[in-house]
Amino acid sequence: MLRIGTLFLATLSLTAVSFDRASAQQVTGEPGSPSATTTIDGRYLPNPPPAFGGQIGLDAKNSKPYWPPQIVPPKGAPNILLIMTDDAGYGVAGTFGGVIPTPALDRVAKAGLRYTQFHSTALCSPTRAALITGRNHHSSGFGVISEQATGYPGYDSVIGVDNATIGEILKQNGFATSWFGKNHNTPAFQYSSAGPFDQWPVGMGFEYFYGFMGGDSNQWTPYLFQNTTQIFPWVGKPGYNLTTDEADNAIDHIKQLNAAAPDRPFFVYFVPGATHAPHHPTQEWIDKFKGKFDMGWNEMREQIFANQKRLGVIPANTQLTPWPDDLPKWDSLDADSKKLFARQAEVFAAYVAYSDHEIGRVIQAIDDLGKLNNTLVIYIEGDNGTSAEGSTLGTPNELITIEGMQIPVADQMKFYDVWGSDKTYPHMSVAWSWAFDTPFKWTKQVASHFGGTRQGMAMAWPARIKDAGGIRSQFHHVIDIVPTILEATGIQAPVMVNGVAQKPIEGVSMAYSWDNAQAPSARTTQYFEMFGNRAIYNDGWIAATTPPAPPWLMGTTKMPDVVNGYKWELYNLTEDFSENNDLAAKMPDKLHEMQELFLMEAAKYNVFPLDNSILERLLTPRPSATAGRNDFTYSGVISGIPSSNAPNIVNRSYTITAEVEIPQGGGEGMLVTTGGRFGGYGFYLLKGKPVFLYNFVDMERFRWEGHDALAPGKHTLVFDFKSDGPGFGKGGTGVLKVDGTEVANEKIPHTIPALMPWDETFDVGVDTRTGVEDNDYQVPFPFNGNIAKLQVALQP
């Protein structure tokens, strides 16, 4: 036994002194001690575990412990605060000449640099996918938003395992990583509590998430998650607003990190929903802008243009692009239209200023901890141009215009006094949106022109960027943020993450511009594409397609052949900053050269197949737990099921059957609902009587109601709807039955054409967030009996 023990000890000694192949380290502290740290090579993540460096004997007295060193970023690496707002074009922020004060963005710009040729993809989640991966949006699977995903690599809305995010890279290099606000980069068909969660923020490298999953959310009653758990922090809190809540949560998180591990750098990704519709600022901020937009959109545009020249954020020779013929000039409007449209802009401006104020609180919290000097702050105003999804008239309910409909001004005036409150889900006229994209043409969704893709961006790092208040005009894109962060932190882009070889980072670092305002652009080529509108930039030139239909028509018009049916334009940006002088007719050879370059770039980055459909893609079948199912059965109380995992009644015939037991004293409460105040349906008992209510996007409500209250005991309630389809938004006939007897029968002229509200859920036995009819009940309106079985049967 003695000989065996000696051999055993000898083997252990060999293990203790073996060479650590995982090193490539900068170790601090006594190796093996609890306080030892190390940086890593970072090309292969996670870092291979180091060899044990101590000694192991037969007992602890004759052994030496050894702790693996904690992984930390390179010495001096800054904290990172990455901020991006929503649906705000180049002319929105006062920092870039807009008429809306943005002091937090001003603060970053004055401490660092303003970039005047920084670009997005023209749509929200595609821009966000490009931002966090450093790859083009088609390379990251986000050619469009997830709700329009199709089964092609560039359009499936899956950020694949070969596209590790900046959160994943920084986390595995020792950063504390967190995400606050809007997500919209998880496939819409994976929002439920069933997961999988690898495409949620916590599965993509962000250790903490506090925000909403979709493209937007009601700011008063949000569809909100903490990590992967749905939460309701607004319940019982009058005056609650998500924008402030997100800032509060981020500030608390940063303070907690500082208290627990003050030396650990953080990466905070702060992306509030503002200023995407619904425009939901607090009344305090709305009051600040009363009367500020009575001058109208044309005069405001002139003011912004003059401010931009004064600030030097556009060249002195820039021309203001012409006002489009199909948008009215302010002076042509009647008094009610002017009053309504001015109110829309007041609320939008309030939302811009309010969100900037809350962003400023986050920045100040970092300063209060003494960490701002060594924090790289990147503040991007907007993930695309200002949104045209409010239509030419604006709307008190965004769902209406998304569905391709409008409300007359006279009907909208009924909401004038509550515009921006929880009674509305509002958006503004596209004429304001066009003006807020000054000096450019077009808006959000239009990737071919800078009105859709040019964003104001400021970047500061006081410990490193010394040209405080400087302006940079190099041409850059959101994919350039990841390599900039990596260079700033001294971290390499990994070639393998979690055993998967990585796509190369497609962006280029912007750090070269920090010390040299005159440095030539490191980005020489960049393609753009969205819904068939496309452009190609190369060395100061850009070729762009002319949009065949304006985005505010939401794809409801007949579109030309997407490959050969588009007209092209050509601009020399070194002489024509605003894309005002089309040279296509004068320089056909140059245009052809640029078109060929687009084809090569598009093939390289998964842009094909081109597709200019919009509404049709909303109805494309996608993978989910409900794919291919037509029968759904539930019992008891269930809430919070997202629409992707629930029975979808849009444009279909369906039957809802509820087997219930009514208690003594009578039945009351919700049986099943999808949607809420701004559209949807509810099947419930009201004072004992069965009611099926269909809320047509808050414009009309259709009601089926029994005459008699149900007696205590078991009953079977059925609502059967036969659609007049096929087609978008067809009407139909609904029949309500109690225990086999018809109690109500009504034909309705139309139904919701494409989408139920995306920030509401499918609930059984209760109603969360907002109700479909405030005059009947208030949420949560729980059913006081027992639901033995709730079945939804859909017709193919």
TrEMBL record:
Query: PROSITE patterns in the record, alphabetically?
Result: SULFATASE_1
Signal peptide from the UniProt entry? 1-24
- This chain belongs to the protein called Arylsulfatase
Note the PANTHER family from the entry: ARYLSULFATASE FAMILY MEMBER (PTHR42693), BLL2667 PROTEIN (PTHR42693:SF43)
Annotated SUPFAM superfamilies: Alkaline phosphatase-like
- Ranges for the region named Disordered are 24-43
Taxonomic lineage from the root: Bacteria, Pseudomonadati, Pseudomonadota, Alphaproteobacteria, Hyphomicrobiales
Return one GO MF term.
hydrolase activity
Q: Does the keyword Metal-binding apply?
A: yes
Q: Which UniProt keywords apply?
A: Calcium, Hydrolase, Metal-binding, Signal
The EC number of this protein is 3.1.6.-
Q: Which Gene3D superfamilies match?
A: 3.30.1120.10, Alkaline Phosphatase, subunit A
Every copy of the Sulfatase N-terminal domain together lies at: 78-491
Q: Where is the composition biased (Polar residues)?
A: 24-40
Protein family membership: Belongs to the sulfatase family.
Tell me the InterPro entries matching this sequence. Alkaline_phosphatase_core_sf, Sulfatase, Sulfatase_CS, Sulfatase_N
